[in-house]
Amino acid sequence: MRTTQSKAAAAARIGAGLARRKRIELLERLKPCFARTGTWQHAGKYMSALVSELPKRNGWTIAQHAGDRSPDRTQRLLSRAVWDESAAMSEIRRFAAKGLDTAARRRRRGSLVIAAIDETGQEKQGEFTAGVKRQYMGCAGRIANGINTVHLSYVRERTGHALAGARQWIPREHLEDPVKSLVMGLPLNLEFRTKGQLAIDLCADAYADGLVFDFVCGDEVYGGCTQLREFLEDNGQAYVLRVASSFMLTPVAGTKLTCAQAVKQLAKGKRCWEVRSAGRGSKGERWYARAWIGTASPRHHLLVRRHLKTGKPAFHYCYVPEGRLLTKTGLIRAAGLRWPVEEDFEFGKDCFGLDQCQARLYTAVLRHIVLVMAALAICAVTAAQLRDHTDTQAPPPVHPQQAPPGDPGLIPLTVPEIRRLLATALQPCYPSGHAARWLNWRRRHQARSRWFHHRTRLNQGNALVS
To answer: Burial of 382 by CB count in 10 Å (0-12 exposed, 13-18 middle, 19+ buried)?
Structure first.
């Protein structure tokens, strides 16, 4: 037991040290993106606050953690300071890809590289935040007022993953309303883009940075976008995109069927189905029944996944360009690697405050997302590179009655644990009276806000009386 504890302590020290080095490396790469050194340094403090143990990460709490006397510098960093958030995102993307690729080469060759595309949102109050609209919010599971952002996650099979791109979706009516565009701080050259078109932009940015993917994966929103599929095929990019049951395909020339009809007519017998794993999750292998249906095009196929208990089907439209080996196993592996983007959203929100931004302007929201991506990339790369060194788990059971091991060992260091180690290593020291100064600042600001709210109510009352 003492040996296990000493190994765990050594792993914690190594993890904290590597995370600090990766943070310094990424900050150095980001330095040219900032016009002033002071702004760059404050961005580093902002990232330190994102990885800290703060229960809520907004302008006030981040400024207090950074040691500032008021939120002014933090608000200036997001809204008015001169720095190139697009170039910063590009540096973060290259940093994450390089770090995960290095970790994969150390572990084993042959792991797939996936671009997983999905969107996530943040509920918002009011109607003046850039992109805010009553819409279906996946994070809330209902129609709510909020904003949505499309993300691309760089996934290395059996190694790790990190967010590598983001584009906020802006409703068309906001862009066509000059008053709203001005209030929300929308760029003058910003054009309306659907979520599928935003995914095209994200893939184009990744290609421009030299990233290469074995497959692009996404859900029905992206599988149903004809423009996205055509863009990927024009670039020789293989994809496994989930589509709706009503998606039309051509099994043979001159015949059109929906996915549901194709399964009913072409996958009738048990021989058409094969139980295969979608990959190993935290609870073990994820088993599903699979069917593979060809189309009139030899490079396009329909991969069908059926739940073993409920029988509920899911459909994936697949494309592999000429010259690449097309196998059912490869498509199944790719289809099972879309979920890491969901885990990146979970890490981003729970660990780094991805959905806690209280900024309203378009640029400020985007800059917060970029800095969250940077914090996540540091921890994801660190966890990936330490995975083999910190994994001491006992072998998994081979039959249901197997007795548990005396020592189950330790799972490898995860992104949340790396964040905690880094937060402890970066814990700042504050001058005397810092907490009291912030207590007084908050109370004075709230008193001022309350006074103006009361005056507004009086004006509304006078208008009603008159």
So the answer is: buried
